[in-house]
Design goal:
This protein is of the alpha+beta class. The chain has helices at residues 6-13, 17-100, 108-128, 155-169, and strands at residues 135-141, 145-152, 176-182, 188-195.
Length: 211
């Protein structure tokens, strides 16, 4: 069979215009699809970044709040220790002052009797109400200070007794300070320093009853 003429062979090797347009259209579609995919990925990455940032904010806020709470607790603890130190120093002053005073023959015995009678009345009333009785173990009055030693069932009983006792005793312009120790069984041993009427707890400079 004879070969086709050279001119005819050249025409057969060339792509038709229709086929070229089709390939271009396919490439354009692929490019558009790729662009859409890239844009979708970009939007998704941006969304994830926003979510991560939003999640970090509460965590950072919680960490800051925790740090603030810890600092506040430390500050409160330091204040409590400082107050305990001041209280102990005042009690030491009162102990020293009480030990340095002698008896006042015209007042000490009368004051001790008044204290004992008031303590018994309050204890009896507490017992009649069904509560555990508080007990006055000792009352010792010197020139300007009295020292009372008491036992109570618990902290609530101690607080109630002290309030009722102060009202029942009826001394005017008197000032006091309490030292309490809680035993393992919950009972309270208390020491009360009480000033003579019209006198102050000298070294402490107190103006009014204080615990």
């Amino acid at each position: 069979m004879d070969a086709p003429p050279e001119k005819e062979q050249a025409r057969l090797g060339e792509a038709s215009p229709e086929r070229s347009d089709s390939r271009l259209n396919q490439m354009q579609v692929q490019l558009d699809t790729l662009r859409q995919q890239l844009e979708a990925q970009r939007l998704e990455m941006a969304r994830l970044a926003r979510n991560a940032k939003a999640a970090d904010r509460p965590a950072a806020g919680a960490a800051e709040a925790a740090t603030s709470d810890e600092a506040s607790q430390v500050s409160e603890h330091e204040q409590e220790l400082a107050e305990q130190g001041r209280h102990a120093a005042r009690l030491l002053e009162l102990q020293t002052q009480f030990a340095s005073q002698g008896k006042d023959a015209g007042w000490s015995r009368t004051a001790e009797s008044q204290i004992a009678a008031s303590a018994k009345q309050v204890a009896d009333a507490s017992g009649a109400a069904g509560s555990e009785r508080s007990e006055l173990r000792d009352a010792d009055c010197r020139t300007a200070l009295c020292r009372l030693t008491l036992t109570h069932k618990d902290a609530a009983s101690a607080e109630s007794f002290i309030q009722e006792f102060a009202n029942n005793l009826g001394w005017r312009q008197t000032h006091g300070r309490v030292q309490s120790v809680q035993n393992p069984d919950g009972s309270i041993e208390a020491v009360i320093y009480l000033s003579r009427e019209g006198r102050r707890l000298y070294e402490t400079g107190e103006q009014g009853s204080s615990q």
